[in-house]
Amino acid sequence: MPEQNVIAPQWLSPAEMKAWRSYIIASRRLLEALDNDLVGHDLSMPDYEILAALSDAPDRKMRMSELAEIGLLSRSRLSHRMKVMEKAGWVRREACPSDKRGYFAVMTPKGWKAIVAAAPDHVESVRERFVNHLSREDQENLFKIFSRIQESLRKESAEK
């Protein structure tokens, strides 16, 4: 059998592992808590994020590809969430007249009511569970750190 040149992974140092594990555990617990806080509104975090993005868009309408691109969900997961959200009456899809393969996600009046009802509780939850634990400097540092990571992931995704 021919010898294979396998490159050994560059294992994480104790400090790197500590930072990584802390991030993973906190982010999962935070998202779970935020998701649980939306249960009373019959929304999940992905539903809320989609509705929030649409609520900020002109005419509460956005191309499906743009929704996926801004990092909410993969295209396949977004498509699945849209089916669930359409069934709930929060959004509808519209064909894009200039691109026969493209679709718009459009927030319905029922979707607008859902986001308006959930937003105060969600913002309070985000503040209590996240923002209140950070100094202004922490917030700026997190923004810089995750902007770098986000940009790297977008480039990597665009190259595929």
Notable characteristics:
three-stranded antiparallel beta sheet, 3 strands, mainly alpha, Arc Repressor Mutant, subunit A, 160 residues
Can you describe what's shown?
The protein is mainly alpha-helical and 160 residues long. Among the domains are: 76 residues, Orthogonal Bundle (Arc Repressor Mutant, subunit A), CATH 1.10.10; 31 residues. It is built from six helices and three strands. It has a three-stranded antiparallel beta sheet. A hairpin with a 2-residue loop joins β2 and β3. The longest helix has 24 residues. The chain is globular. The model has no long low-confidence stretch (mean pLDDT 91).
User: What percentage of amino acids are in beta strands?
Assistant: 5-15%
CATH overall fold name of the domain at 42-117? Arc Repressor Mutant, subunit A
Radius of gyration: 19 Å
Span of the ends, CA to CA:
33 Å
Write the CATH architecture name of the domain at 42-117: Orthogonal Bundle
Number of strands: 3
Give a short overview.
The protein contains six helices and three strands. With 160 residues, it is mainly α.
Please write out the topology.
Elements lengths: L13 H24 L7 H12 L4 E3 H6 L5 H14 L2 E6 L2 E9 L1 H21 L6 H24 L1
Antiparallel strand pairs: 1-3, 2-3
Helix pairs in contact: 1-5, 2-5
